Amino acid sequence: MRLATVRIDGGTRAAVGDESGWVLLDEPDAQELVVSEGWRERAEAALRHPAREDVDPAAFGVPVPRPAKVFCCGLNYRDHIVETGRAVPEYPTLFAKFADTLTGPVDEIVVRDTAKLDWEAELAVVVGSEVHRADKDEAAAAILGYAVSNDVSMRDWQQRTLQWLQGKAFDATTPIGPHLVTADAIDPKAGLRITCAVNGETLQDGNTRELVFDAADLVSYVSQITRLQPGDIILTGTPGGVALGMEDPRWLRDGDVVTTAIEGLGELRNTIRFA
Amino acid sequence: MRLATVRIDGGTRAAVGDESGWVLLDEPDAQELVVSEGWRERAEAALRHPAREDVDPAAFGVPVPRPAKVFCCGLNYRDHIVETGRAVPEYPTLFAKFADTLTGPVDEIVVRDTAKLDWEAELAVVVGSEVHRADKDEAAAAILGYAVSNDVSMRDWQQRTLQWLQGKAFDATTPIGPHLVTADAIDPKAGLRITCAVNGETLQDGNTRELVFDAADLVSYVSQITRLQPGDIILTGTPGGVALGMEDPRWLRDGDVVTTAIEGLGELRNTIRFA
Questions:
Q1: β-pairing, A233-235 with A70-73?
Q2: ipTM metric
Protein backbone atom coordinates (compact mmCIF):
# COMPACT_ATOMS: atom_id res chain seq x y z
CA MET A 1 0.00 0.00 0.00
CA ARG A 2 1.16 3.54 -0.70
CA LEU A 3 0.53 6.46 1.64
CA ALA A 4 0.94 10.09 0.70
CA THR A 5 0.14 13.64 1.67
CA VAL A 6 -1.37 15.60 -1.21
CA ARG A 7 -1.55 19.38 -1.44
CA ILE A 8 -5.05 20.29 -2.56
CA ASP A 9 -7.43 23.27 -2.28
CA GLY A 10 -4.96 25.30 -0.21
CA GLY A 11 -4.54 22.51 2.34
CA THR A 12 -3.44 18.90 2.36
CA ARG A 13 -5.15 15.50 2.42
CA ALA A 14 -3.98 12.01 3.24
CA ALA A 15 -4.06 9.67 0.27
CA VAL A 16 -3.82 5.92 -0.07
CA GLY A 17 -2.82 4.36 -3.33
CA ASP A 18 -1.50 1.53 -5.43
CA GLU A 19 -0.09 1.23 -8.92
CA SER A 20 -3.47 2.30 -10.40
CA GLY A 21 -3.67 5.67 -8.64
CA TRP A 22 -4.86 7.39 -5.50
CA VAL A 23 -7.84 7.66 -3.17
CA LEU A 24 -8.07 10.80 -1.05
CA LEU A 25 -9.06 10.26 2.58
CA ASP A 26 -10.45 12.67 5.17
CA GLU A 27 -7.31 13.07 7.30
CA PRO A 28 -5.14 16.11 6.54
CA ASP A 29 -1.98 14.05 5.98
CA ALA A 30 -0.57 10.54 6.15
CA GLN A 31 0.88 11.17 9.63
CA GLU A 32 -2.59 11.98 11.00
CA LEU A 33 -3.98 9.01 9.10
CA VAL A 34 -1.72 6.42 10.67
CA VAL A 35 -2.54 7.43 14.23
CA SER A 36 -6.29 7.32 13.56
CA GLU A 37 -8.38 4.36 14.73
CA GLY A 38 -8.69 1.53 12.21
CA TRP A 39 -6.77 3.39 9.51
CA ARG A 40 -5.36 0.31 7.83
CA GLU A 41 -8.76 -1.35 7.41
CA ARG A 42 -10.24 1.89 6.05
CA ALA A 43 -7.34 2.32 3.65
CA GLU A 44 -7.60 -1.25 2.41
CA ALA A 45 -11.35 -0.89 2.00
CA ALA A 46 -10.86 2.28 -0.04
CA LEU A 47 -8.49 0.44 -2.35
CA ARG A 48 -10.96 -2.40 -2.94
CA HIS A 49 -13.06 0.06 -4.95
CA PRO A 50 -11.70 0.64 -8.45
CA ALA A 51 -12.11 4.44 -8.34
CA ARG A 52 -8.78 6.26 -8.42
CA GLU A 53 -7.67 9.86 -8.77
CA ASP A 54 -4.72 11.06 -10.75
CA VAL A 55 -2.52 13.29 -8.65
CA ASP A 56 -0.15 15.83 -10.21
CA PRO A 57 3.41 14.86 -9.15
CA ALA A 58 3.95 18.44 -7.99
CA ALA A 59 1.03 18.06 -5.53
CA PHE A 60 2.80 15.55 -3.30
CA GLY A 61 4.10 17.00 -0.07
CA VAL A 62 6.22 15.55 2.72
CA PRO A 63 4.39 12.28 3.52
CA VAL A 64 4.77 12.69 7.30
CA PRO A 65 5.07 16.44 7.77
CA ARG A 66 5.57 16.72 11.55
CA PRO A 67 8.11 14.19 12.77
CA ALA A 68 9.16 15.02 16.32
CA LYS A 69 12.48 13.34 15.57
CA VAL A 70 14.47 12.90 12.38
CA PHE A 71 17.59 10.80 12.84
CA CYS A 72 20.19 10.30 10.13
CA CYS A 73 22.82 7.60 9.99
CA GLY A 74 26.21 8.37 8.45
CA LEU A 75 28.56 5.88 6.82
CA ASN A 76 26.28 2.85 6.39
CA TYR A 77 26.88 1.25 2.95
CA ARG A 78 29.31 -1.65 3.28
CA ASP A 79 30.68 -1.44 -0.29
CA HIS A 80 31.29 2.28 0.05
CA ILE A 81 33.01 1.89 3.43
CA VAL A 82 35.29 -0.86 2.11
CA GLU A 83 36.18 1.13 -1.02
CA THR A 84 37.27 4.08 1.13
CA GLY A 85 39.53 1.77 3.16
CA ARG A 86 37.68 2.26 6.42
CA ALA A 87 36.61 -0.41 8.88
CA VAL A 88 32.96 -1.43 9.02
CA PRO A 89 31.64 0.50 12.05
CA GLU A 90 30.49 -1.18 15.26
CA TYR A 91 27.88 1.50 15.98
CA PRO A 92 25.74 3.72 13.75
CA THR A 93 26.90 7.33 13.41
CA LEU A 94 23.82 9.42 14.20
CA PHE A 95 22.92 13.05 13.74
CA ALA A 96 19.62 14.91 13.59
CA LYS A 97 17.50 16.98 11.26
CA PHE A 98 14.23 18.76 12.01
CA ALA A 99 10.72 18.57 10.56
CA ASP A 100 11.45 21.95 8.94
CA THR A 101 14.43 20.45 7.10
CA LEU A 102 12.12 18.33 4.95
CA THR A 103 10.59 19.31 1.63
CA GLY A 104 8.36 17.70 -0.97
CA PRO A 105 9.43 15.18 -3.62
CA VAL A 106 9.49 17.59 -6.56
CA ASP A 107 9.88 20.90 -4.73
CA GLU A 108 12.65 23.28 -5.69
CA ILE A 109 15.48 23.24 -3.17
CA VAL A 110 16.38 26.86 -2.47
CA VAL A 111 19.80 27.45 -0.91
CA ARG A 112 22.13 30.35 -0.23
CA ASP A 113 25.49 30.97 1.40
CA THR A 114 27.02 27.69 0.29
CA ALA A 115 29.68 26.89 -2.30
CA LYS A 116 29.76 23.14 -1.64
CA LEU A 117 26.27 21.76 -2.12
CA ASP A 118 26.19 17.96 -2.38
CA TRP A 119 23.67 15.13 -2.83
CA GLU A 120 23.13 11.97 -0.74
CA ALA A 121 20.49 9.51 -1.93
CA GLU A 122 19.03 7.73 1.10
CA LEU A 123 16.42 5.19 2.08
CA ALA A 124 14.02 6.77 4.62
CA VAL A 125 12.40 4.62 7.30
CA VAL A 126 9.17 5.93 8.83
CA VAL A 127 8.02 4.77 12.26
CA GLY A 128 4.38 3.73 12.59
CA SER A 129 3.92 3.02 16.28
CA GLU A 130 5.52 4.07 19.54
CA VAL A 131 8.74 2.19 20.11
CA HIS A 132 11.10 2.33 23.08
CA ARG A 133 13.99 0.05 24.01
CA ALA A 134 12.89 -2.39 21.36
CA ASP A 135 14.69 -5.51 20.23
CA LYS A 136 15.08 -6.04 16.51
CA ASP A 137 11.77 -7.87 16.04
CA GLU A 138 9.83 -5.22 17.95
CA ALA A 139 11.62 -2.55 15.96
CA ALA A 140 10.76 -4.23 12.66
CA ALA A 141 7.11 -4.42 13.72
CA ALA A 142 7.10 -0.66 14.44
CA ILE A 143 8.17 0.32 10.92
CA LEU A 144 5.30 1.87 8.98
CA GLY A 145 7.08 2.03 5.65
CA TYR A 146 9.83 3.39 3.45
CA ALA A 147 10.39 6.32 1.14
CA VAL A 148 13.12 7.94 -0.92
CA SER A 149 15.06 10.86 0.51
CA ASN A 150 18.09 12.95 -0.29
CA ASP A 151 20.23 14.27 2.55
CA VAL A 152 21.29 17.34 0.58
CA SER A 153 24.36 18.68 2.40
CA MET A 154 26.17 22.01 2.58
CA ARG A 155 29.69 20.58 2.89
CA ASP A 156 31.24 23.95 3.71
CA TRP A 157 28.92 24.37 6.70
CA GLN A 158 29.20 20.68 7.60
CA GLN A 159 32.99 20.96 7.75
CA ARG A 160 33.16 24.18 9.74
CA THR A 161 33.24 22.15 12.96
CA LEU A 162 33.42 18.52 14.09
CA GLN A 163 29.65 18.20 14.25
CA TRP A 164 27.82 17.83 10.93
CA LEU A 165 24.40 19.20 11.98
CA GLN A 166 24.78 22.72 10.62
CA GLY A 167 25.44 21.46 7.10
CA LYS A 168 22.47 19.13 7.25
CA ALA A 169 19.67 21.20 8.76
CA PHE A 170 18.91 24.10 6.40
CA ASP A 171 15.17 24.55 6.14
CA ALA A 172 13.39 22.77 3.27
CA THR A 173 16.49 21.15 1.79
CA THR A 174 15.88 17.41 2.38
CA PRO A 175 13.32 16.08 -0.10
CA ILE A 176 11.36 12.99 0.91
CA GLY A 177 8.67 10.99 -0.88
CA PRO A 178 7.07 10.71 -3.32
CA HIS A 179 5.01 8.54 -0.96
CA LEU A 180 5.52 5.81 1.61
CA VAL A 181 5.34 2.17 0.66
CA THR A 182 4.16 0.19 3.69
CA ALA A 183 6.56 -2.33 5.19
CA ASP A 184 4.36 -5.31 4.30
CA ALA A 185 4.82 -4.49 0.62
CA ILE A 186 8.57 -4.02 0.26
CA ASP A 187 11.77 -5.24 1.91
CA PRO A 188 14.92 -3.14 1.58
CA LYS A 189 17.02 -6.02 2.93
CA ALA A 190 16.11 -8.05 -0.17
CA GLY A 191 18.03 -5.45 -2.19
CA LEU A 192 16.64 -2.29 -3.77
CA ARG A 193 18.69 -0.32 -6.26
CA ILE A 194 19.25 3.25 -5.02
CA THR A 195 20.48 5.94 -7.43
CA CYS A 196 21.09 9.65 -7.66
CA ALA A 197 21.44 11.46 -10.97
CA VAL A 198 22.33 15.09 -11.62
CA ASN A 199 20.93 16.45 -14.90
CA GLY A 200 20.39 12.87 -16.03
CA GLU A 201 23.89 11.60 -15.25
CA THR A 202 23.82 8.79 -12.68
CA LEU A 203 26.40 9.56 -9.98
CA GLN A 204 25.31 7.24 -7.19
CA ASP A 205 24.26 3.64 -7.86
CA GLY A 206 23.99 1.44 -4.79
CA ASN A 207 21.81 -1.24 -3.29
CA THR A 208 20.03 -1.29 0.05
CA ARG A 209 21.25 -4.84 0.71
CA GLU A 210 24.64 -3.22 1.42
CA LEU A 211 23.35 -1.41 4.53
CA VAL A 212 25.54 -2.22 7.53
CA PHE A 213 22.72 -1.26 9.90
CA ASP A 214 19.38 -2.11 8.30
CA ALA A 215 16.07 -0.40 9.04
CA ALA A 216 15.19 -2.57 12.05
CA ASP A 217 18.74 -2.30 13.44
CA LEU A 218 18.50 1.49 13.34
CA VAL A 219 15.01 1.70 14.84
CA SER A 220 16.11 -0.67 17.62
CA TYR A 221 19.34 1.23 18.28
CA VAL A 222 17.72 4.66 18.34
CA SER A 223 14.91 3.34 20.55
CA GLN A 224 17.47 2.53 23.26
CA ILE A 225 18.16 6.25 23.45
CA THR A 226 14.75 7.81 22.92
CA ARG A 227 11.11 6.89 22.43
CA LEU A 228 10.09 7.05 18.77
CA GLN A 229 6.57 7.98 17.73
CA PRO A 230 4.46 7.57 14.58
CA GLY A 231 5.85 9.81 11.86
CA ASP A 232 9.39 9.85 13.19
CA ILE A 233 11.98 9.27 10.48
CA ILE A 234 15.38 7.64 10.20
CA LEU A 235 17.50 8.30 7.11
CA THR A 236 19.79 5.33 6.63
CA GLY A 237 22.88 6.78 4.99
CA THR A 238 24.11 7.09 1.42
CA PRO A 239 26.13 4.87 -0.92
CA GLY A 240 29.30 6.04 -2.70
CA GLY A 241 29.29 8.64 -5.45
CA VAL A 242 28.77 11.95 -3.70
CA ALA A 243 30.61 15.09 -4.86
CA LEU A 244 32.64 15.17 -1.63
CA GLY A 245 34.32 11.92 -2.67
CA MET A 246 35.42 13.20 -6.09
CA GLU A 247 38.98 14.31 -6.78
CA ASP A 248 37.57 17.47 -8.34
CA PRO A 249 34.14 17.79 -6.70
CA ARG A 250 31.27 18.75 -8.96
CA TRP A 251 29.18 20.75 -6.46
CA LEU A 252 25.53 21.42 -7.26
CA ARG A 253 24.73 24.60 -9.15
CA ASP A 254 21.69 26.74 -9.76
CA GLY A 255 19.29 24.95 -12.11
CA ASP A 256 20.70 21.45 -11.56
CA VAL A 257 18.04 18.75 -11.48
CA VAL A 258 18.68 16.06 -8.87
CA THR A 259 16.80 12.80 -9.41
CA THR A 260 16.85 10.36 -6.50
CA ALA A 261 15.29 6.94 -6.98
CA ILE A 262 14.87 3.67 -5.11
CA GLU A 263 13.54 0.57 -6.85
CA GLY A 264 9.91 0.04 -5.84
CA LEU A 265 9.67 3.32 -3.91
CA GLY A 266 9.58 5.84 -6.76
CA GLU A 267 11.68 8.93 -7.34
CA LEU A 268 12.29 12.49 -6.25
CA ARG A 269 13.04 15.16 -8.80
CA ASN A 270 14.28 18.44 -7.32
CA THR A 271 15.67 21.51 -9.02
CA ILE A 272 18.37 23.43 -7.17
CA ARG A 273 17.93 27.19 -6.85
CA PHE A 274 20.45 29.57 -5.37
CA ALA A 275 18.63 32.48 -3.77
CA MET B 1 10.11 38.65 35.43
CA ARG B 2 10.22 34.92 36.01
CA LEU B 3 8.23 32.43 33.94
CA ALA B 4 7.64 28.81 34.88
CA THR B 5 5.58 25.76 34.22
CA VAL B 6 4.16 24.27 37.41
CA ARG B 7 2.82 20.73 37.81
CA ILE B 8 -0.47 20.95 39.65
CA ASP B 9 -3.68 18.89 39.94
CA GLY B 10 -2.46 16.25 37.49
CA GLY B 11 -1.71 18.85 34.80
CA THR B 12 0.46 21.93 34.44
CA ARG B 13 -0.04 25.68 34.62
CA ALA B 14 1.96 28.65 33.48
CA ALA B 15 3.23 30.80 36.31
CA VAL B 16 4.73 34.25 36.48
CA GLY B 17 6.82 35.31 39.42
CA ASP B 18 9.35 37.51 41.10
CA GLU B 19 11.46 37.24 44.24
CA SER B 20 8.30 37.23 46.40
CA GLY B 21 6.68 34.17 44.82
CA TRP B 22 4.40 33.01 42.03
CA VAL B 23 1.08 33.79 40.38
CA LEU B 24 -0.56 30.95 38.45
CA LEU B 25 -2.03 31.91 35.08
CA ASP B 26 -4.63 30.14 32.91
CA GLU B 27 -2.30 28.82 30.21
CA PRO B 28 -1.08 25.23 30.63
CA ASP B 29 2.61 26.18 30.44
CA ALA B 30 4.99 29.06 29.85
CA GLN B 31 5.43 28.12 26.19
CA GLU B 32 1.67 28.50 25.58
CA LEU B 33 1.72 31.69 27.63
CA VAL B 34 4.32 33.50 25.55
CA VAL B 35 2.49 32.92 22.27
CA SER B 36 -0.79 34.21 23.67
CA GLU B 37 -2.00 37.71 22.87
CA GLY B 38 -0.88 40.40 25.31
CA TRP B 39 0.84 37.93 27.62
CA ARG B 40 3.47 40.33 28.90
CA GLU B 41 0.94 42.97 29.93
CA ARG B 42 -1.20 40.34 31.66
CA ALA B 43 1.82 38.91 33.44
CA GLU B 44 2.98 42.34 34.58
CA ALA B 45 -0.54 43.18 35.77
CA ALA B 46 -0.65 39.93 37.77
CA LEU B 47 2.60 40.86 39.48
CA ARG B 48 1.32 44.31 40.48
CA HIS B 49 -1.01 42.58 42.95
CA PRO B 50 0.77 41.49 46.12
CA ALA B 51 -0.82 38.00 46.21
CA ARG B 52 1.72 35.22 45.66
CA GLU B 53 1.68 31.47 45.91
CA ASP B 54 4.45 29.33 47.28
CA VAL B 55 5.36 26.58 44.85
CA ASP B 56 7.07 23.37 45.99
CA PRO B 57 10.45 23.21 44.18
CA ALA B 58 9.56 19.67 43.05
CA ALA B 59 6.49 21.02 41.23
CA PHE B 60 8.46 22.93 38.61
CA GLY B 61 8.54 21.25 35.20
CA VAL B 62 10.41 22.05 32.01
CA PRO B 63 9.57 25.76 31.50
CA VAL B 64 9.02 25.38 27.74
CA PRO B 65 8.01 21.73 27.33
CA ARG B 66 7.60 21.43 23.55
CA PRO B 67 10.53 23.08 21.75
CA ALA B 68 10.51 22.08 18.08
CA LYS B 69 14.26 22.60 18.08
CA VAL B 70 16.90 22.29 20.79
CA PHE B 71 20.36 23.30 19.64
CA CYS B 72 23.49 22.86 21.73
CA CYS B 73 26.81 24.58 21.23
CA GLY B 74 30.01 22.71 22.05
CA LEU B 75 33.31 24.27 23.11
CA ASN B 76 32.27 27.84 23.90
CA TYR B 77 34.01 29.07 27.09
CA ARG B 78 37.12 31.06 26.20
CA ASP B 79 39.06 30.32 29.39
CA HIS B 80 38.37 26.60 29.08
CA ILE B 81 39.39 26.53 25.41
CA VAL B 82 42.63 28.37 26.13
CA GLU B 83 43.48 26.08 29.07
CA THR B 84 43.11 23.03 26.84
CA GLY B 85 45.52 24.57 24.32
CA ARG B 86 42.99 24.79 21.51
CA ALA B 87 42.34 27.78 19.26
CA VAL B 88 39.25 29.91 19.83
CA PRO B 89 36.81 28.62 17.18
CA GLU B 90 35.61 30.66 14.24
CA TYR B 91 32.19 28.96 14.15
CA PRO B 92 29.97 27.45 16.84
CA THR B 93 29.97 23.66 17.05
CA LEU B 94 26.29 22.67 16.98
CA PHE B 95 24.41 19.51 17.74
CA ALA B 96 20.78 18.78 18.62
CA LYS B 97 18.64 17.40 21.40
CA PHE B 98 14.89 16.79 21.40
CA ALA B 99 12.00 18.03 23.52
CA ASP B 100 11.94 14.54 25.08
CA THR B 101 15.56 14.95 26.22
CA LEU B 102 14.53 17.62 28.72
CA THR B 103 13.48 17.07 32.31
CA GLY B 104 12.46 19.22 35.26
CA PRO B 105 14.79 21.17 37.56
CA VAL B 106 14.68 18.76 40.51
CA ASP B 107 13.61 15.56 38.75
CA GLU B 108 15.62 12.39 39.19
CA ILE B 109 17.74 11.62 36.15
CA VAL B 110 17.29 7.93 35.39
CA VAL B 111 19.94 6.34 33.20
CA ARG B 112 21.05 2.87 32.15
CA ASP B 113 23.62 1.28 29.87
CA THR B 114 26.32 3.87 30.54
CA ALA B 115 29.55 3.70 32.50
CA LYS B 116 30.68 7.26 31.73
CA LEU B 117 27.99 9.65 32.86
CA ASP B 118 29.17 13.26 33.01
CA TRP B 119 27.82 16.73 33.87
CA GLU B 120 27.91 19.96 31.81
CA ALA B 121 26.48 23.09 33.45
CA GLU B 122 25.07 25.34 30.72
CA LEU B 123 23.26 28.61 30.21
CA ALA B 124 20.03 27.97 28.26
CA VAL B 125 18.64 30.61 25.90
CA VAL B 126 14.93 30.45 25.11
CA VAL B 127 13.53 32.03 21.96
CA GLY B 128 10.42 34.18 22.33
CA SER B 129 9.48 35.13 18.79
CA GLU B 130 9.97 33.73 15.31
CA VAL B 131 13.42 34.53 14.02
CA HIS B 132 14.94 33.72 10.64
CA ARG B 133 18.15 34.98 9.08
CA ALA B 134 18.45 37.56 11.82
CA ASP B 135 21.34 39.92 12.43
CA LYS B 136 22.64 40.17 15.97
CA ASP B 137 20.25 42.95 17.05
CA GLU B 138 17.22 41.12 15.68
CA ALA B 139 18.44 37.93 17.34
CA ALA B 140 18.84 39.69 20.69
CA ALA B 141 15.30 41.07 20.40
CA ALA B 142 13.95 37.55 19.83
CA ILE B 143 15.35 36.15 23.08
CA LEU B 144 12.61 35.52 25.63
CA GLY B 145 14.88 34.70 28.51
CA TYR B 146 17.44 32.47 30.15
CA ALA B 147 17.51 29.42 32.39
CA VAL B 148 19.95 26.96 33.92
CA SER B 149 20.53 23.63 32.21
CA ASN B 150 22.84 20.65 32.45
CA ASP B 151 23.83 18.83 29.27
CA VAL B 152 24.23 15.50 31.08
CA SER B 153 26.28 13.32 28.72
CA MET B 154 26.85 9.60 28.27
CA ARG B 155 30.50 9.85 27.22
CA ASP B 156 30.70 6.18 26.22
CA TRP B 157 27.81 6.63 23.77
CA GLN B 158 29.07 10.07 22.73
CA GLN B 159 32.44 8.62 21.81
CA ARG B 160 31.18 5.58 19.92
CA THR B 161 31.23 7.59 16.69
CA LEU B 162 32.32 11.00 15.44
CA GLN B 163 28.89 12.50 16.03
CA TRP B 164 28.00 13.32 19.64
CA LEU B 165 24.19 13.13 19.36
CA GLN B 166 23.69 9.63 20.74
CA GLY B 167 25.44 10.49 23.99
CA LYS B 168 23.38 13.65 24.38
CA ALA B 169 19.83 12.63 23.55
CA PHE B 170 18.69 10.04 26.10
CA ASP B 171 15.12 10.79 27.15
CA ALA B 172 14.63 12.93 30.26
CA THR B 173 18.33 13.46 31.01
CA THR B 174 18.82 17.21 30.43
CA PRO B 175 17.38 19.21 33.34
CA ILE B 176 16.35 22.79 32.66
CA GLY B 177 14.85 25.45 34.88
CA PRO B 178 13.96 26.17 37.58
CA HIS B 179 12.26 28.95 35.63
CA LEU B 180 13.07 31.47 32.92
CA VAL B 181 14.25 34.95 33.76
CA THR B 182 13.17 37.29 30.97
CA ALA B 183 15.88 38.97 28.93
CA ASP B 184 14.96 42.46 30.16
CA ALA B 185 15.88 41.42 33.71
CA ILE B 186 19.29 39.76 33.30
CA ASP B 187 22.30 39.98 30.98
CA PRO B 188 24.63 36.97 30.75
CA LYS B 189 27.21 39.11 28.89
CA ALA B 190 27.64 41.18 32.04
CA GLY B 191 28.98 38.04 33.70
CA LEU B 192 27.04 35.45 35.65
CA ARG B 193 28.82 32.85 37.73
CA ILE B 194 27.96 29.32 36.54
CA THR B 195 28.72 26.30 38.71
CA CYS B 196 28.15 22.59 38.93
CA ALA B 197 28.58 20.65 42.17
CA VAL B 198 28.37 16.91 42.74
CA ASN B 199 27.33 15.93 46.28
CA GLY B 200 28.19 19.47 47.36
CA GLU B 201 31.69 19.59 45.84
CA THR B 202 31.99 22.36 43.26
CA LEU B 203 33.57 20.90 40.12
CA GLN B 204 32.74 23.56 37.53
CA ASP B 205 33.05 27.25 38.28
CA GLY B 206 32.86 29.55 35.26
CA ASN B 207 31.39 32.82 34.17
CA THR B 208 29.07 33.55 31.25
CA ARG B 209 31.19 36.54 30.24
CA GLU B 210 33.68 33.97 28.89
CA LEU B 211 31.27 32.75 26.18
CA VAL B 212 32.95 32.93 22.77
CA PHE B 213 29.54 33.01 21.05
CA ASP B 214 27.05 34.82 23.26
CA ALA B 215 23.29 34.25 23.28
CA ALA B 216 22.54 36.69 20.46
CA ASP B 217 25.47 35.36 18.37
CA LEU B 218 24.06 31.84 18.64
CA VAL B 219 20.45 32.81 17.90
CA SER B 220 21.65 34.79 14.89
CA TYR B 221 23.91 31.99 13.63
CA VAL B 222 21.31 29.25 14.01
CA SER B 223 18.69 31.46 12.39
CA GLN B 224 20.75 31.52 9.18
CA ILE B 225 20.16 27.78 8.98
CA THR B 226 16.62 27.37 10.25
CA ARG B 227 13.65 29.37 11.43
CA LEU B 228 13.40 29.43 15.23
CA GLN B 229 10.05 29.64 17.00
CA PRO B 230 8.86 30.58 20.50
CA GLY B 231 10.00 27.93 22.96
CA ASP B 232 13.01 26.80 20.93
CA ILE B 233 16.13 26.44 23.04
CA ILE B 234 19.86 26.90 22.58
CA LEU B 235 22.24 25.52 25.18
CA THR B 236 25.39 27.57 25.09
CA GLY B 237 28.15 25.16 26.11
CA THR B 238 29.92 24.36 29.34
CA PRO B 239 32.98 25.74 31.16
CA GLY B 240 35.91 23.58 32.31
CA GLY B 241 35.63 21.02 35.07
CA VAL B 242 33.73 18.09 33.58
CA ALA B 243 34.69 14.50 34.43
CA LEU B 244 35.87 13.91 30.86
CA GLY B 245 38.67 16.43 31.41
CA MET B 246 40.00 14.75 34.59
CA GLU B 247 43.07 12.53 34.57
CA ASP B 248 41.10 9.94 36.50
CA PRO B 249 37.48 10.79 35.60
CA ARG B 250 34.98 10.71 38.43
CA TRP B 251 31.89 9.56 36.49
CA LEU B 252 28.46 10.04 38.02
CA ARG B 253 27.10 7.19 40.16
CA ASP B 254 23.72 6.11 41.44
CA GLY B 255 22.56 8.49 44.16
CA ASP B 256 24.85 11.37 43.23
CA VAL B 257 23.23 14.79 43.59
CA VAL B 258 24.14 17.24 40.83
CA THR B 259 23.55 20.90 41.64
CA THR B 260 23.77 23.29 38.70
CA ALA B 261 23.52 27.01 39.36
CA ILE B 262 23.77 30.29 37.50
CA GLU B 263 23.89 33.59 39.37
CA GLY B 264 20.48 35.28 39.12
CA LEU B 265 18.84 32.32 37.40
CA GLY B 266 18.53 29.86 40.28
CA GLU B 267 19.62 26.26 40.52
CA LEU B 268 18.83 22.72 39.46
CA ARG B 269 19.21 19.86 41.89
CA ASN B 270 19.00 16.41 40.31
CA THR B 271 19.66 13.00 41.79
CA ILE B 272 21.18 10.40 39.48
CA ARG B 273 19.50 6.98 39.38
CA PHE B 274 20.81 3.98 37.48
CA ALA B 275 17.86 1.85 36.38
A1: parallel
A2: 0.97
